């Protein structure tokens, strides 16, 4: 049974009311608020976010040195080119201000309920609606809301976690996590342990090193430290010694000359988008390994012993490629120790390694990453009470990262299998939003009560992923969040293809891969009552089809 909320005597183009709840006001949620309200008539929209401010990743990660590691001009909205990026890799705060500016410019803050955390989502089959329980983070009060479509923009890297090290909570000094920073903390003159060598750690170490008295960097595994992305362009900047800052002349050119701004962006974006070929096993991957090794050897000349410990046996890209300007340089400073012995425990005043050595510190920074399993965020119950977290315990199966069988009317932005190993993520986030927008438009127009991918479509996508990743460096043995923190598990976080490939896939939904239930159980309800809105509402143009913008003019013989 589905609710019969559409009367059969409606016009074919009568826009059925759609209520959409978006979870998350990071980049994906902001894009959703802009596009859904632009394109879906008769829409009720609420965007909930647990944080007091929009921005997601860029609101939460405020550790010293936080910045994008793809060029700023590649990490922005296609429709909002910013001529004002102050440097080649923008700081986290500059990125946050940019997205806050977009929220104001398109006036979408009014749809957002910040400080509100979704604590449960449950699909009601009899109503074809999602019911969400939302906690007001200031009062603790739980409110309830319902919607036709739930769009989870909850981020792939949003669930930060403390490392599983015994004694961590007994530490009496300052304990920090990269994704939950205390900005009032000052490292000046302190001895500091930094645990990890992922993208966060390699930004933190060089940023605080000049202020601290000593840093112990605990690195249990191996990792590639890459030369910067878009190497050709960045070399120009390093060559000018401008600390990656754009010069006044460059900024003036970007501001006064949109063509030049676009040309610059296209040049960078082309470099970033053309790297996927290095991620297939084979000669190019080997070439990348030898280039990276050369880069690392040179920067570690002063302390060559670190090279032997840090140099991986797997190919670059198996873990996320991490260009870390300044990291290896910082490791070679006299007051920085690179510690590759396993940590056995943490005491009240420091860290003890497997050989029994205690190194006392004033502060411990855990740059130890996120839970990327997608199964422990908040309970999601799909059709018939299906516990999605439970089903995703071993593998988060989806259809193209967007949706999954058993959870109708639920879509994900940047969900499982959506990460981009190299290449632009922002265009993928935009196209994902466009895709979901066309699904909502179809549900509205075709009077669809529920839509979900066919089970066979999810199974086929998983088979495709398994086959695809076998050919790539991602499935080599290395511990990575791409594999939910395992060394040899299936690749669950990445899109099986390039960024450009993902964009093509998202361009046009293959609606034949979905199952539908129509409103009122009537598969002809979409056709309405034989009339159009223009015939009952005099404000609608009856002959819009004659307007030049709606006419596809054929070429005349002289133009052929
Ligand atoms: C430190 C760091 C640096 C990065 N740098 C780059 C980079 O250089 N280039 C790149 O391409 N990518 C980078 N990334 C990846 C980055 O996460 C994405 O590029 C992008 O910001 C994802 O946006 P999003 O909106 O999809 O997710 P997020 O930014 O993660 O936003 C998710 C939002 O959902 C909210 N939310 C989650 N659960 C709930 C809930 N239960 N209830 C209410 N709200 C909820 C969160 O509060 C958050 O605001 C980086 C990630 C990190 C952590
Ligand atoms: N644009 C950027 O510059 C930027 C910056 C930060 C983050 N990011 C994004 O966020 C992702 C996550 O980055 P991240 O650095 O926060 O996390 P991460 O890549 O998962 O790295 C976590 C690090 O902590 C170590 N670690 C975890 N648990 C540990 C334990 N119990 N004991 C010792 N070491 C432990 C890991 O060691 P092992 O290697 O041995 O597992 C690893 O070095 C990145 O891959 C990237 O996509 C991007
Ligand atoms: C860029 O900065 C200039 C000068 O500060 C300002 O006038 C302009 O509005 C800014 N442009 C954008 C798109 O933010
Ligand atoms: C959430 O709680 C705060 C503090 O009690 C209150 O001021 C606010 O109005 C609440 N928000 C909503 C939407 O109820
Ligand atoms: C640690 O080294 C850096 C230079 O690399 C220096 O600026 C800093 O003062 C040093 N700290 C101490 C206490 O010597
Ligand atoms: C660290 O511990 C892991 C397993 O916990 C082990 O495989 C590895 O050999 C240890 N490394 C060192 C240097 O002791």
Q: Can you walk through the features of this model?
A:
The protein is of the alpha/beta class and 560 residues long. The protein folds into 2 domains: 18-159 and 373-520, FAD/NAD(P)-binding domain (3-Layer(bba) Sandwich), CATH 3.50.50.60; 168-229 and 276-366, FAD/NAD(P)-binding domain (3-Layer(bba) Sandwich). Helix content is 28%, strand content 17%. It has 15 helices and 21 strands. The strands form 6 sheets. It has a 5-stranded parallel β-sheet, covered by helices on one side. The protein has a 5-stranded parallel β-sheet with strand order 8-17-9-10-13, with helices on one face. A hairpin with a 4-residue loop joins strand 15 and strand 16. Helix 1 (27-39) packs parallel to helix 12, helix 6 (248-256) packs across helix 7 and helix 12 packs parallel to helix 14 (499-507). It is globular, with a radius of gyration of 26 Å. One 2-acetamido-2-deoxy-beta-D-glucopyranose binds at residues 341-342, 354. Belongs to the FAD-binding monooxygenase family. It holds the Pfam family NAD_binding_8. Keywords: FAD, Flavoprotein, Membrane, Transmembrane, Transmembrane helix. Its cofactor is FAD. The chain crosses the membrane at residues 20-37.
């Amino acid at each position: 049974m589905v609710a019969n909320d559409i009367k059969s005597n409606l016009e074919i183009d009568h826009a059925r009311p759609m209520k959409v709840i978006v979870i998350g006001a990071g980049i994906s949620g902001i894009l959703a608020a802009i596009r859904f309200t632009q394109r879906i008539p008769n829409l009720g929209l609420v965007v909930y976010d647990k944080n007091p401010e929009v921005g997601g990743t860029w609101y939460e990660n405020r550790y010293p040195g936080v910045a994008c590691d793809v060029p700023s001009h590649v990490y922005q909205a296609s429709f909002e080119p910013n001529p004002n990026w102050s440097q080649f890799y923008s700081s986290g705060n500059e990125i946050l201000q940019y997205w806050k500016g977009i929220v104001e410019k398109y006036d979408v803050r009014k749809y957002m309920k910040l400080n509100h955390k979704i604590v449960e989502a449950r699909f009601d089959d009899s109503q074809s609606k999602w019911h969400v329980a939302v906690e007001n983070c200031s009062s603790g009060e739980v409110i309830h809301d319902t919607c036709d479509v739930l769009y989870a923009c909850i981020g792939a890297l949003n669930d930060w976690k403390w490392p599983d090290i015994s004694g961590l909570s007994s530490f009496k000094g300052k304990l920090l996590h990269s994704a939950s920073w205390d900005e009032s903390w000052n490292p000046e003159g302190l001895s500091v342990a930094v645990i990890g060598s992922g993208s966060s750690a390699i930004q933190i170490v060089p940023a605080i090193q000049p202020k601290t008295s000593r840093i112990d960097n605990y690195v249990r595994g191996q990792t590639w430290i890459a030369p910067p992305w878009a190497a050709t362009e960045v070399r120009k900047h390093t060559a000018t010694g401008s600390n990656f800052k754009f010069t006044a002349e460059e900024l003036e050119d970007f501001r006064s000359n949109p063509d030049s701004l676009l040309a610059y962006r296209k040049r960078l974006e082309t470099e970033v988008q053309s790297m996927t070929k290095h991620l297939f096993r084979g000669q190019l991957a080997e070439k990348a390994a030898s280039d990276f090794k050369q880069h690392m050897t040179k920067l570690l000349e002063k302390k060559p012993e670190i090279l032997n410990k840090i140099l991986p046996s797997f190919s670059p890209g198996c873990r996320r490629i991490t260009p870390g300007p300044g990291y290896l340089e910082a490791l070679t400073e006299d007051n920085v120790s690179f510690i590759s012995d396993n940590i056995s425990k943490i005491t009240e005043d420091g860290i003890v390694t497997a050989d029994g050595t205690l190194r006392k510190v004033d502060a411990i920074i855990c740059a130890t990453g996120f839970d990327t399993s997608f199964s422990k965020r908040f309970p999601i119950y799909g059709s018939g009470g299906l516990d999605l977290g439970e089903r995703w315990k071993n593998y988060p199966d989806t259809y193209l990262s967007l949706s999954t069988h058993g959870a109708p009317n639920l879509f994900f932005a940047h969900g499982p299998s959506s990460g981009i190993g190299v290449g632009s993520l922002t265009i993928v986030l935009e196209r994902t939003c466009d895709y979901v927008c066309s699904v909502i438009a179809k549900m509205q127009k075709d009077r669809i009560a529920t839509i979900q991918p066919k089970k066979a479509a999810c199974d086929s996508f998983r088979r495709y992923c398994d086959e695809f990743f076998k050919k790539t460096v991602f499935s080599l043995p290395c511990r990575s969040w791409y594999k939910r923190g395992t060394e040899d598990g299936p690749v669950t976080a990445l899109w099986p293809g390039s960024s450009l490939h993902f964009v093509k896939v998202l361009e046009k939904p293959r609606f034949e891969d979905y199952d539908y239930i129509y409103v009122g159980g009537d598969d002809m309800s979409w056709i309405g009552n034989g009339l159009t809105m223009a015939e009952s509402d005099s404000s609608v143009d009856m002959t819009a089809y004659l307007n030049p913008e709606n006419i596809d003019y054929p070429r005349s013989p002289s133009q052929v």
